[in-house]
Design a protein that fits this description.
The two termini are 22 Å apart. By secondary structure, the protein is an alpha/beta fold. It folds into two domains: 193 residues, 3-Layer(aba) Sandwich (Rossmann fold); 176 residues, Glycogen Phosphorylase B (Rossmann fold), CATH 3.40.50.2000. It has a seven-stranded parallel sheet with strand order 3-2-1-4-5-6-7, with helices on both faces. Strands 10-9-8-11-12-13 form a six-stranded parallel sheet, sandwiched between helices. The longest helix is centred in the last third of the chain and has 18 residues. Helix 9 links the parallel strand 9 and strand 10.
């Protein structure tokens, strides 16, 4: 829907690589631009990925810190200069470093700030941003008008840790991209053959950056145990990251060279999803994981660990499956539960998951939610109190 009063808004994020927060910023910025808003995107660092997509959509993108230079006072000064040149009505920040620097610059320039926290990191070291990150968020959060959090459960944990005051929290879910059309059976069979998947294989897919948060090493352990009971199972891992060498070594060590395969970064993930018989996310912490939403929307039977806002996406055994924990034994047991179901049972569960996520996280509704928070930040102070 078109907005009666188009605004000028600047977005600030730590970097514009490939990731959930980056994808959400891109969807929001692009949608507001389509509604007639004047949108600028600022990044503390240059990272290839989403930035190129934004530029192709004719959105101005500016990097504040040269390659190889650490973030510091010069970054803050560069942001202040950018805000004075752009003169936005509101600055919207994503991720810890951007939140902290953006709040300081917004206060300096008199620009209202809406911040965003994307996960609570309960499961890794038990802290959002670790101790220093908690402290920096806690000190600077009062400089934001509001802090948008993408899941109720994440919001509750962040408030319980006293990172953000309850009065500042606004919950707005992640925006779901329209799912790709399902592949026709002959095309699906052809692509599975290109991936080297034998006929009759039960194909698991996971996707995400190859880093400790995503728990790929334990997923491989779980898959090895699962294959003892489901020998036709195969596992595809899409993504790139610092753990690639460790994962290759673990695949060899577990004797999975023929059944577990690293795909690297896939920009065609919506199509790759349709090659899978089931999707699995083994993360140790999350906010509201985009990739799970995309798997559900694609109608793929989906299993995830009980982290972040997973309970808002999946009702165990009804719209998907949830492992008891992120440990290898519990992931393996949950994988066994999925494959023990008949194809028809999995299809029914997947259909419920698709209906649930499409209804709750449509792009227009989520953009409306963000628009309301931004407009609230720009309202006169008395009106803000009433809101």
């Amino acid at each position: 829907m078109a907005d009666a009063t188009p605004r000028r808004v600047s977005f600030l994020i730590t970097g514009l690589g490939i990731g959930g927060a980056e994808m959400q910023l891109a969807r929001l910025a692009t949608a507001l631009h389509a509604r007639g808003w004047s949108v600028h995107v600022l990044a503390l660092r240059e990272l290839s990925g989403v930035g190129e997509d934004l530029r192709q959509a004719n959105l101005p993108v500016q990097t504040l810190t040269p390659a190889g230079v650490r973030l510091g006072p010069r970054t803050l000064v560069a942001l202040v200069r950018a805000l004075r040149a752009q003169r936005p009505d509101c600055l919207v920040t994503f991720l810890l470093q951007a939140n902290v620097i953006g709040r300081l610059a917004g206060a300096w320039c008199g620009v209202p700030v809406v911040s965003s926290i994307r996960n609570s990191r309960f499961g890794g070291d038990g802290r959002y941003g670790a101790r220093i990150g908690d402290l920096l968020e806690r000190i600077t959060a009062p400089l934001s008008h509001a802090v948008v959090i993408n899941a109720q459960s994440t919001a509750a944990r962040v408030v319980a840790r006293r990172v953000v005051a309850q009065r500042q929290v606004r919950v707005v879910g992640n925006a779901l991209a329209p799912p790709a059309a399902a592949l026709a059976a002959p095309e699906r069979a052809r692509l599975r053959s290109e991936f080297g998947l034998p006929e009759g294989a039960f194909v698991w897919l996971t996707a995400g950056r190859l880093q400790p948060q995503k728990n790929h090493l334990d997923l491989l352990e779980a898959f090895a145990r699962h294959r003892q009971r489901t020998p036709e199972a195969h596992l595809l891992l899409a993504g790139e990251g610092p753990l690639e060498a460790s994962l290759r070594a673990r695949i060899e060590g577990l004797g999975l060279a023929r059944t577990a395969r690293l795909l690297g970064l896939r920009r065609d993930l919506p199509q790759v999803l349709h090659l899978a018989d089931a999707f699995v996310l083994a993360s140790r912490w999350e906010g509201l994981p985009n990739v799970v939403m995309e798997a559900l929307a694609a109608g793929v039977p989906t299993l995830a660990t009980p982290v972040g806002g997973i309970d808002e996406l999946i009702e165990d055994g009804v719209s998907g499956w949830v492992a008891a924990s992120a440990d290898a034994d519990d992931i393996a047991s949950a994988m066994d539960r999925v494959t023990a179901c008949s194809a028809r049972e999995r299809s029914i569960v997947a259909a419920r998951g698709r209906a649930r996520v499409v209804e709750r996280y449509g792009l227009e509704a989520i953009v409306d939610g963000w628009t309301s928070v931004i407009e609230e930040a720009l309202a006169p102070r008395g009106a803000r109190r009433r809101a």
